[in-house]
Amino acid sequence: MPTPVILPRVDMDMETGRIARWLIESGASVRQGDALFEIETDKATMEIEAPASGIVHIFTPASGTDIKVASIVAEIRAPGETPTDAPVPQRVPELHAGIAAGHAAPLAEIEASAPPPMPSFAPPVKLLRATPLARRQAAIRGLDLTAITGSGPRGRVTSRDVETVTLAEPPAALPRPARIEVRETIVYLHGFASNSTAWDPLSAQLDADLPRIAIDLPGHGDAATLAQPTLAAMAAHVVAAVREQTSGPVHLVGHSLGGAIAARVALSNLLDVRSLLLIAPVGLGPVIDHDFIIGLLRARAEASVLPWLHRLVADPARISRGMVRAVLALMADPARAAFLAALAANAFPDGTQSADWMIDVTPLLMPVRIVFGREDRIIPFHPAARIGGSVAVNLLPNIGHMPQIEAPALLARILAEVIRSASIVNVQANASSGAPS
């Protein structure tokens, strides 16, 4: 029997939703867990996965029409399986629609018998459609969403629309951004060809009751590209992004390429950095797996990208289908793919970590911790042994290049220790200066 695909309830108060777009075509073969379509509600847009494996037959195309929760929008059939009758989706009735069968009347007759309309005392309110991320970015930057032309479904404003407006305006013309005054904030910086969601496993394991900011580096995730793919420009972007969201002290956590950027930010003294955790960071030595970089930049299909992503981890099962889709989506964007290629040429010319990206964290006075997996095939851990004694180094057995997804609980414990160390150092510094802690 075919497996129905329904429009699910993704919010407690959700009654209807809209199919923003189908991610596959009718007649395509899928496996259980593959992304089928994007559902759009008043609060968010998210992917809905296949409940079974088989051949998808779509009943309801993507459109701006509201559909009731639990409506069957497609079904998944096994090869040769007899189809069911295509159901009629339960669409939300509009004006003069939804009249019961057998009781329909001519539209002119209905309008003639209707009471006169009440006088209007206020102009109609324009419905504002914007993604949650776009709303947050606009609030931070002090932008009027109603003045932004949306490029999403039915004119919905996306984060990229907000970024375009922001980049088009000179900084001096922007209103002073709203700041969240906090005691301390954890700031995550991801690696090459990744995005901010890579930190979700670690953040979920962390017990520290601190606000967290996961930043998309330029050209990654939802962030725009830069004119110059340099360490200085990337670090300046991070400083500006952090300042937009907090004016308090921060704990920087950087992975791989993000590690070199985090170290540069800490050394710049442009932020009040209380601690620094570097995970398999770029910048300690010249060696890097150049084949991995080139292979990732060339990959345009799952079959070609998967072997390179497997090199990131000791256990290939750690690579999720979501990670594969994210990398392929990044490489499918010509502007971002070109930026990543330029960034790789700048940071890793001829398969070597550039001297411009080298870092020396020994002058830093805050707690600094470096973490490597012993099975890292992208960046070897040996250069970390040459770091001065003021910097602690953890080498994790049976772990590859991505401890944040291979050993999130252990890494969360290490991060908590670093944050506690920073608190002790801060108390001691305040005591010696006579300032209140």
From TrEMBL:
<feature type="domain" description="Peripheral subunit-binding (PSBD)">
    <location>
        <begin position="129"/>
        <end position="166"/>
    </location>
</feature>
<feature type="domain" description="Lipoyl-binding">
    <location>
        <begin position="2"/>
        <end position="77"/>
    </location>
</feature>
<dbReference type="Pfam" id="PF02817">
    <property type="entry name" value="E3_binding"/>
</dbReference>
<dbReference type="InterPro" id="IPR004167">
    <property type="entry name" value="PSBD"/>
</dbReference>
<dbReference type="Pfam" id="PF12697">
    <property type="entry name" value="Abhydrolase_6"/>
</dbReference>
<dbReference type="InterPro" id="IPR000073">
    <property type="entry name" value="AB_hydrolase_1"/>
</dbReference>
<comment type="similarity">
    <text>Belongs to the 2-oxoacid dehydrogenase family.</text>
</comment>
<protein>
    <submittedName>
        <fullName>Pyruvate dehydrogenase E2 component (Dihydrolipoamide acetyltransferase)</fullName>
    </submittedName>
</protein>
<dbReference type="InterPro" id="IPR036625">
    <property type="entry name" value="E3-bd_dom_sf"/>
</dbReference>
<dbReference type="InterPro" id="IPR029058">
    <property type="entry name" value="AB_hydrolase_fold"/>
</dbReference>
<dbReference type="InterPro" id="IPR011053">
    <property type="entry name" value="Single_hybrid_motif"/>
</dbReference>
<dbReference type="InterPro" id="IPR003016">
    <property type="entry name" value="2-oxoA_DH_lipoyl-BS"/>
</dbReference>
<keyword id="KW-0808">Transferase</keyword>
<dbReference type="Pfam" id="PF00364">
    <property type="entry name" value="Biotin_lipoyl"/>
</dbReference>
<keyword id="KW-0450">Lipoyl</keyword>
<dbReference type="GO" id="GO:0016746">
    <property type="term" value="F:acyltransferase activity"/>
</dbReference>
<dbReference type="InterPro" id="IPR000089">
    <property type="entry name" value="Biotin_lipoyl"/>
</dbReference>
<keyword id="KW-0670">Pyruvate</keyword>
